[in-house]
Amino acid sequence: MGFYVTSRVFRQLRPVCFQLSVRYFSVTDQHNTRLAEVGKLELPKAQGKYETGQLFLHRVFGYRGVILFPWLARVYDRDLPSQNKSVQSDSTVAPAGSDSSTPPNTAKEVQKKTHTFYQVLIDQRDCPYIRAQTEAVTFLGNQESSRSLYAIPGLDYVAHEDILPYSSGEQHPLQHELFDKFLAHQPDKDPPFSAQDTLRAWQKKNHPWLELSDVHKETTEGIRVTVIPFYMGCRETPAASVYWWRYCIRLENLGELSVQLRERHWRIFSLSGTLETVRGRGVVGQEPVLSPRLPAFQYSSHVSLQAPSGHMWGTFRMEREDGHMFDCRIPPFSLESKPDDSGNPSDDSSNNSSSSGSTTSTTGGGSSSSAGGGGSSSSGGATSLEDLF
Fold it and tell me: How many angstroms from the chain centroid is the CA of residue 142?
C-alpha cells in the first residue's frame, strides 16, 4: 500500500510529497526522513461531488482530511472578464486615504458562479505543519457578559479542486476526536465510511453558523486573495445588539518570486453609519512569506458591528524578494446577518471545562479591534465539544 504518483503529475504533487516526508518522520527522526505510506491516490473528480467519508490530501496545504458534507457557494471572482463591457472599468476607485464608505471597484460587474466546497476534518497529526489555522471555525460562547469565542480544532472548508482523493485499508486512517463520532466504518462501501446520526444532527443544529454561502476572489500582481465570511450570531448587551462575523482569508502566490506580507489596511463600514480604519503589521502576529515552494497562507479573524449588516474591504502591503512593494487588493465583501431562529449553538451548553475544545477571547466595540487579523489572545479556558450536540 502506498501513493502511486506518475512523473506526469509529480510536479503538481511535489509540495504535498515534500510536506508528507517532513510531517510524518522528521518529528521523531530529523536525520532519516522518508515518505510514509498512508494510502493510494485516486483520480480527482472532474464532474460530480465527493461523498461523505472520502479521504483526501489538500492540494495546497498537503494535510490529510476526510469529507463530512458539501456546501454549494456563490463565488464572486473579480478576475473573470465581465459579460457587460459597459461597466467593466474600475471607475469608482476611491483615492488613497479617502474616507469614502463605498468599497473600491464597485462599478465593476463581478461574475458570479456556484461552486462546491466541503466541510472537512483535518488529521490532528498534520496540524502543526500546515500554513493555515486549524482552529479557524469558531462559535460565540454562551456567556452573556463576555465576548469569548470558542473553536473546534481541525475543521476546515475546502474547494472541490483542492481535493486529492485517496483510499486506505485502515479502519482508523485519520486521527481526530470527532472521526468516530461522525463516521462509521463500512468496508463494503466506497468510500468505506458513512455518516452517523450524530453528524447529521450536528450539521442540522449548527447549520446557521457553519453555512458557507459566499466566496470572494481577486488577484493583484500574481497574489490571489480569497475571502469567505460567516455570520456567527448576535449577542444582546444592555447598550446595544452586537452582531458577530468570522472571515477566512487565503493568500496564494501564483508567481515565480517570493513575496512577504508586511502590513494590512482594512475599512469596515457599518449600516449604522460608522466607518472604521484598521492598520497594522502583518496578520495574526505573522508576516508570512509566500514562496514558490510554500505559496499559500490561510488565517481567520473576527469582526463585530452594532448593526445587522455592513461591508469590508482593504489591502495587504506586500514586498517582493526583488524589493518591489505593492498593495494587494482584498475583494470587498458584505457582512449580512441572518434571522436567529435556532439560538446560539452553545445556548444549552453547560460550559464545563474539557480538553476537547479551546476558548478564544477578543475585544471589540462598534467594530471589533481584532478585525483584519490583529489576532486574539487565549483566555485559558475550554469548552466541551459535547456542547455542540
Answer: 23
